[in-house]
Specification:
By secondary structure, the chain is mainly alpha-helical. The protein has helices at residues 22-51, 58-71, 83-95, 107-116, 122-152, 154-165, 168-174, 180-196, 201-216, 225-240, 245-270, 288-296, 301-314, 334-342, 345-360, 368-383, 397-406, 415-433, 467-477, 519-523, 527-534; strands spanning 319-322, 325-328, 483-486, 514-518, 537-542, 546-550.
């Protein structure tokens, strides 16, 4: 019996497409939310980059980047490898500053000369120098997302990305032409690639080694991560071949050798002839075990001399400030305490919960060494340092522990999504409230950004970033008044139209009018400055980093 053919639906150019199914809409929602989170982060960082004057370290890095471009040599700032400054050099090249090749001063003087004495616009030059670091910081956000998605899925990955994007420390230092965030981000990338190497060693081990090499070629403080990541490379190989001991050693060797090659490549990019004049820089002699280890490093001589300079800096006695107490030297507990002050409370709770979940949940336990061990080793190394100058020395924690925190959503309890969502929202509100001044952030338990200077100093609060804002405030509210200024930073006050005298150079009785003091200088005030501050009345503040007093 013949059957009638099924009707065929004809389509025309005017026919409307069927609406996407719910699963398709959910798939579209994830990239949209990623874009939203990274966009708000970009806005926060670019706003800071536009408004902030040079911080203490930035002019040195910018001048070094300019020298790389024009002189093709390693001379300035040898205590840090060149790769991070090559990133900055991308922006410097686009800014096209005038460079004086005859200048032979110190690296600090070179930065000041380039920004303020060579006919360049420091606002424009600093913005261009900061933009490549901002771009890298945003890319590292994608690494946080991808790492967490591999471990726990897209929704936990969004939570991890939100914590990263709203981290005040990451936003603050990711918007500067400095090296801390790039070095930490490259280490995170290496750890993520090593995790992926568990399913494809040949593809991912060389990439992980390259990421480790970029970290080593950015900051020498990443060296303690080398044995950890080499061991993780071996662990990744063993995950596929439990008895493949030789293959495990080969995997560790691939990562290590690739990392060393990247360090050499960074120096060769700057100067293909690898010229290095140790006599032009004071390189201290390092004895004992440290000296022996430096000689064994398979890196260019400039790198090894840079390590010697770093050890020389570590041997100096640095001034610290913690909860109103000024001290010389370092305190082993400084970084943990400072992190408790400067990390949003919701983030601290999720970090702790995430670390527990990685260790306790069976299916996540294999990832714990990749997320927690590098962060723990780097933190322990940073805690032994001689410079209690800021949480930027531990900026890797908001990256690694964001991944751990996202994994809390794998807990199969009804309260987990609600609790995580509430804590992430708390972090977002706390972070947004400090906009646009992220450097002096502290959480609500310690009074917020306005009170940070009572407990911490230096790059935690006042790194010289608000000189331009101070100029605007003086011109708008204190025009014509006699100004006395104690400024801690690399900016040149006169360039911004600030006509001020140093009150420390005259007897206190002659200081009348408006006394303006950087909060880091207030924290360490001694002698005549301390006398002046005790007899002055605070009347205003700028950016939670500079206080104005009336005398």
């Amino acid at each position: 019996m013949a059957t009638e053919p099924h009707p065929v639906l004809e389509t025309t150019p005017d026919a409307k497409a069927a609406p996407p199914s719910p699963p398709a809409r959910r798939r579209l929602l994830v990239p949209v939310l990623v874009a939203v989170l990274l966009t708000q982060m970009a806005v926060a960082m670019v706003t800071g980059a536009v408004r902030q004057t040079p911080t203490i370290d930035e002019p040195v890095y910018v001048a070094t980047a300019a020298e790389y471009l024009h002189e093709h040599r390693v001379r300035l700032n040898p205590e840090h490898p060149p790769l991070g400054k090559l990133v900055v050099a991308v922006g410097v090249a686009l800014a096209r500053p005038h460079v004086d090749p005859s200048f032979t001063g110190t690296q600090e003087a070179a930065g000041r000369h380039l920004l303020y004495e060579s006919g360049n616009d420091p606002w424009q030059l600093m913005l261009w120098a900061r933009l490549p670091v901002i771009a890298l910081t945003l890319l590292f956000g994608l690494v946080v997302f991808a790492f967490t998605r591999d471990l726990a899925g897209p929704v936990p990955a969004l939570a991890a990305l939100a914590l990263y994007a709203f981290s005040p420390d990451v936003v603050a230092h990711g918007s500067l032409a400095t090296l801390d965030v790039p070095a930490a981000g490259f280490l995170l990338t290496s750890a993520w690639l090593l995790w992926r190497a568990r399913s494809g060693a040949r593809r991912y081990l060389p990439l992980a080694g390259a990421a480790l090499g970029t970290a080593l070629a950015t900051k020498m403080s990443t060296l303690p991560a080398v044995p950890v990541l080499a061991a993780l490379a071996a662990l990744s190989v063993c995950a596929r071949r439990p008895r493949g001991f030789r293959r495990a050693l080969l995997g560790a060797a691939v990562v290590t050798v690739t990392a060393v090659a990247v360090v050499w490549a960074a120096y060769l990019v700057v100067d293909p002839r690898l010229r290095w004049d140790a006599g032009a820089t004071h390189v201290p002699v390092v004895h004992g075990l440290r000296g022996h280890l430096v000689r064994l490093l398979p890196f260019p001589e400039a790198y090894r001399d840079g390590m010697r300079i770093q050890f020389g800096l570590e041997n100096r006695s640095w001034s610290g400030f913690l909860f109103g107490h000024v001290y010389s030297g370092a305190r082993w507990y400084y970084l943990p305490v400072a992190l408790v002050v400067k990390t949003p409370l919701g983030m601290l709770a999720l970090w702790a919960a995430g670390a527990v979940v990685l260790v306790v949940v069976r299916r996540l336990r294999p990832a714990a060494p990749y997320v927690l061990v590098p962060a723990a080793v780097l933190l322990a190394s940073a805690m032994t340092g001689a410079r209690d100058l800021g949480t930027r020395y531990a900026v890797f924690l908001p990256m690694f522990l964001a991944v751990a925190a996202g994994c809390v959503l794998t807990v199969r309890r009804r309260w987990a999504p609600v609790a995580v969502g509430a804590l992430v929202a708390f972090v977002a509100v706390s972070s947004l409230r400090t906009y646009p001044s992220y450097l002096p952030y502290s959480n609500e338990a310690f009074g917020g950004p306005a009170k940070t200077h009572l407990r911490l100093h230096d790059s935690n609060v006042d790194w010289g970033q608000d000189l331009g804002r101070l100029a605007d405030r003086l011109h708008s509210s204190y025009r014509g008044e006699r100004v006395w200024l104690v400024y801690k930073g690399s900016g040149v006050p006169a360039y911004y139209g600030i006509d001020a005298s140093d009150p420390r150079r005259v007897p206190p009785a002659k200081v009348h009018g408006l006394l303006v003091v950087s909060d880091s200088a207030v924290a360490e005030a001694r002698g005549g400055l301390a006398v002046l501050l005790r007899s002055s009345r605070p009347v205003d503040e700028v950016g939670d980093s500079i206080t104005l007093y009336r005398r």
